[in-house]
Amino acid sequence: MIMDLSVLLSNLIGLFLLIGVGFFAVRAGILPAEASKPLTALLMKITVPATIVSSMLRPLDMGFLKMGASMLLVGMVILPLFSVVSLGLSRLFRVPDGRRGMWCFCATFCNSGFMGFPVALALFGEEGLALTVILSIPFNLMMYSIGAKMVCMDLPRDGSAQAISWGKVIFSVINLSLVVGLFFYFTQIQLPQAVRGPLDYLAGVTTPLSMMITGMNLSQGKAGDIFRDRDILTAAGTRLLILPVLAWGLMRLIPGLSSLVLGAALLNFSMPSPAAAALLGEQYGGDTQTAVRAVFVSSLLCIVTIPLVSLLL
After folding, report:
1. Which of 13, 95, 233, 298 is most enclosed, with most CB atoms within 10 A?
2. 249 pLDDT more than 90
3. Calculated CA dihedral for residues 183, 189, 191, 196, nearest 10 degrees
4. Sign (positive or negative) of CA dihedral 292, 145, 81, 43
């Protein structure tokens, strides 16, 4: 058990109340729904990188390095397995051609950076966040390679899909901030307070901002027909329950795996489908309608499923 269950649930409730603030702000007309786009850019290009660098400004610890290596190994093994299991389940659930690729994408990949980082920070502290950042390395590489191939499964095989931009995958702001953070971690260079202070202030914005943006995005969805879409419900169930439980079972078989690694990884694997699903759908001509629906439903249902999955810790 990483922490007392009451503490875990208390933190989760607080985070989801922040989601409610964002939802209410749009529905009450305080903020326009379009405000989520510039706020998302602020989050992903400024506050999340600041949070990553800040989390790595810690004393050099061989124990943490061992946990980081374990987390990287977990990601490299379990994430490819998720893609195989999702493909098999798409056939078991009889997902029709034309949306099967996007179904697999939304079931396989999770909202790691957008929700995973701030939730890990809130529940497990900076060490848990740092481990989650390490897990994002294989996650990002897979999402924009295997994930892009999944999206293109629904397209006619006429060569119309765009090529993957590996430069954007490898040299993303998130990955570059990780490199900067690791540089300061291994060199143990101390930043002056004039720099460290603003960095910490920006890092402190990440959690409430990300949760409120999630609420703003949820406010734009219409739940009427979506919850009668069987494919969307099976994708959400796979993403939020089946794959996290599978990951938990596999990680329990790893001898000597740190409880913090187990908790941070399981939390990350329990996140809803990523907003990148719709972005990749638009880029490659995939089924964006299925993407939007799956992101909306899984983001809404995770309010219930994350506490349920946390009972395994």
Report:
1. 298
2. yes
3. 50
4. negative
Whole-angstrom distance, CA of residue 67 vs CA of residue 262: 10
Q: What is the pLDDT of residues 217-227, one digit of tens each?
A: 777 666 666 77
Confidence of residue 1 (pLDDT cuts 50, 70, 90): very low
pLDDT tens track for 137-164: 888 778 877 887 888 887 765 555 555 5
What is the arithmetic mean of pLDDT over 24-31? 91
The span from the CA of 213 to the CA of 216, in Å, is 5
Please report the pLDDT score of residue 163 as a whole number: 54
- Are 99 and 290 in contact by the 8 Å Cβ rule? The answer is yes
- How is 158-222 classified by DSSP, letter by letter? SS-SPPP-HHHHHT-HHHHHHHHHHHHHHH-PPPPHHHHHHHHHHHHHHHHHHHHHHHHHHTT--
Residue whose C-alpha is closest to residue 208's, from 15, 24, 51: 15
Nearest to 166, CA basis, from 183, 148, 193: 148
Q: Is the pTM of this model over 0.70?
A: yes
Compute the radius of gyration of the chain from its Cα atoms: 19
